[in-house]
Design a protein that fits this description.
About 45% of the residues lie in helices and about 20% in strands. It contains 13 helices and ten strands. With about 290 residues, it is α/β, with parallel strands linked by helices. The strands form two sheets. It has a seven-stranded mixed beta sheet with strand order 6-2-1-7-8-10-9, sandwiched between helices. The radius of gyration is 21 Å and the shape is globular. The structure holds S-adenosylmethionine. S-adenosylmethionine binds near residues 75 and 144.
Length: about 290
């Protein structure tokens, strides 16, 4: 299948307008593979034919399906394990103390894909029932892709998916095999909710979250959109909350809203607000100040 430059530019423009994700030239090879199933399903022969249908606006709903097919939804349970250990050993014990009055913990997984990150968090709480008995734990998973959110809500995974990141003991304890694959048990499903949401829009519960995970979502956003995403996340967090990014992602040079938590590797805290984290100037502002 061949795609012209102008067609790939139209697709890249559509994806960026709806999600902020950039399909840089070096990643445009993905287009063909990503759209092949959708095109087969819709009996569309070539990518340029697909673009013509899109541009003419003849099929409402098709553009959203194209956007969802172009998104990278890679995920698995306890991805990059270490940050979950930091949450379990370092952050949750602190929250257990600071929220002892309200006995409520709220977590937001922004860009949760098909839900594995959310169910991993639910497993951490479920593995420690004595600590969290009598607490209200809310874990919200959101994604811009409605297909991903539908799958996350179903909470069912194929044999391949359920084995990625889980030991056999965890798999058998927390998932039941059924006609649709391996479904998360009620104990894991009870504290979780999923909704469609674009991270670049105002957050679902401003100021309400104790922890926000935004992992492997910001990588292909433009610098400007990254800054906006950090502003959205900052406005979602309680003043003493934590932000967790993916491996290789950082706030440095992108925002002054967050600084690294020196006690919890890979986690970030709001600057100011008595959090003890100093505001850091972005490199651009520093060089401008020095000029
Ligand atoms: C690579 S997956 C990461 C999933 C999970 N956080 C993890 O680290 O395993 C990135 C997810 O972010 C979602 N996404 C991309 N842009 C988004 C946006 N603007 N708002 C919300 N979700 C977005 C994609 O649909 C995709 O499911």
């Amino acid at each position: 299948m061949q795609i012209s430059d102008s067609s790939s530019r139209i697709l890249a423009g559509l994806l960026e307008a709806r999600t902020g994700q950039q399909l840089t030239l070096s990643r445009r090879w993905r287009i063909e593979t990503a759209l092949s199933a959708l095109m087969r399903e819709r009996a569309i022969g070539t990518l340029d034919e697909l673009i013509t249908i899109l541009v003419m606006g003849r099929e409402p709903g098709l553009s959203q399906q194209v956007v969802e097919a172009l998104l990278n939804n890679e995920t698995y349970f306890f991805r990059d394990r270490a940050p979950f250990d930091v949450l379990d050993r370092n952050v949750l014990p602190q929250l257990a103390k600071s929220r002892a009055q309200s006995k409520r913990v709220r977590i937001w997984s922004a860009g949760c894909s098909t839900g594995q990150e959310v169910f991993s968090l639910a497993m951490i709480f479920a593995e420690n029932p004595d600590q969290w008995r009598g607490w209200t734990v809310d874990i919200l998973g959101t994604d811009v892709s409605s297909g991903c959110v539908d799958r996350a809500r179903a909470g069912s995974y194929s044999q391949f998916e359920v084995q990625r990141g889980l030991g056999i003991g965890q798999m058998i304890k927390w998932f039941e095999e059924g006609a649709d694959g391996w479904r998360a048990v009620e104990t894991l499903r009870r504290p979780v909710r999923f909704q469609v949401h674009n991270l670049l829009e105002p957050p679902p519960h401003p100021g309400g979250f104790d922890i926000v995970l935004c992992r492997n979502v910001l990588l292909y956003l433009s610098a400007e959109k990254k800054t906006l995403a950090f502003e959205r996340v900052a406005s979602a967090l309680a003043p003493d909350g934590w932000l967790m990014l993916g491996a290789g992602e950082t706030v440095i040079g992108q925002t002054t809203k967050f600084g690294a938590d020196i006690n919890a590797r890979g986690l970030y805290r709001l600057t100011g607000n008595g959090s003890g984290i100093e505001k850091r100037r972005s490199p651009d502002r520093r060089s401008a100040a020095g000029a």
